[in-house]
Write a structure and sequence with these properties.
Layout (H helix, E strand, L loop, with lengths): L15 H8 L13 H22 L13 E5 L7 H6 L3 E6 L2 H13 L5 E4 L10 E7 L8 H10 L1 E12 L3 H13 L16 H10 L2 E3 L3 E6 L3 E5 L5 E8 L6
Parallel strand pairs: 1-2, 1-4, 2-3, 4-5
Antiparallel strand pairs: 5-9, 6-9, 7-8, 7-9
């Protein structure tokens, strides 16, 4: 007998004030020295983890430039496309969703300029009537949503039977309060009001939410910073972490 997954909820996950905050940053999203500079520094680290996860899960050749050729990908909370565009260049047919209409407009314009065919959508994930995807990503998003359980369930519902889910988010620790909220926003590395420490989620909490949606979380990797290495993958989860998740054995899509 198969185990039933938690049904995807149609409850609202978008916080209008969060969408408005990020929408105001849309015009600078692709400026590596603008308000999204930290995301530009973070993106190569996330992509390094993601490429290893793709090769491991789908059995792709690490030497190929298009490991997602013939596959579909969904990026949820895509902003102006910092992750969606590399996914398209890796060969995926990409759909990307964001809560801010301004971000989607900026994303469409940038993708068109680069000759990339990405299906950008604005609105609540559960209300968009999307299908299932081989790869679903959501980077630095869950800490901004109104209902984390509903959000995770919605992500899980979009993953194909043998698909892969990848998420990254800040950890709720003393270090993240001091550095990600206090220091980073205090000196202008991150726009003020971007982070609300109480909304950060620990790896254990995320694991429980994923289990409730019928998914097993892999071992998290930390995203750390040092003067010598800059941002890099590590075993230190105190600031930020990135994880894979797969459907539990016996759980039907």
């Amino acid at each position: 007998m198969s185990i039933a997954t938690t049904p995807a909820t149609t409850g609202a996950t978008i916080r209008p004030e969060e969408a408005a905050h990020f929408g105001k940053l849309a015009a600078e999203w692709w400026d590596p020295k603008g308000s999204s500079a930290m995301l530009h520094k973070l993106n190569p680290v996330r992509l390094g983890f993601l490429r290893e996860a793709i090769d491991s899960h789908f059995g792709s050749d690490p030497r190929t430039l298009r490991p997602l050729a013939g596959r579909t990908a969904l990026d949820v909370g895509c902003g102006a496309g910092l992750l969606a565009e590399p996914l398209a260049r890796m060969g995926a047919a990409v759909t990307a969703v964001d809560a801010a209409a301004e971000n989607i407009a900026a994303a469409k314009a940038h993708a068109q300029g680069g000759g990339l065919a990405i299906d950008y959508r604005h609105g609540e994930l559960a209300a968009l009537g999307l299908g299932r995807f081989d790869l679903v990503t959501s980077m630095e998003v869950i800490e901004h949503v109104a209902d984390k359980a509903a959000f995770v369930a919605g992500l899980a519902d979009r993953v194909a039977e043998s698909g892969l889910l990848v998420l990254s988010t800040p950890n709720r620790t003393t270090a993240s309060r001091l550095l990600l909220v206090g220091a980073a926003e205090g000196v202008g590395m991150v726009p003020r009001g971007t982070h609300h420490w109480d909304d950060f989620i620990t790896p254990l909490e995320l694991s429980d939410l994923l289990a409730g949606a019928g998914f097993a979380m892999g071992n998290p990797r930390g995203i750390s910073w040092s003067p010598l290495k800059g941002l890099h993958l590590s075993d230190d989860l105190s600031l930020n972490y990135i994880v894979t998740a797969r459907r539990m054995e016996g759980v039907q899509a």
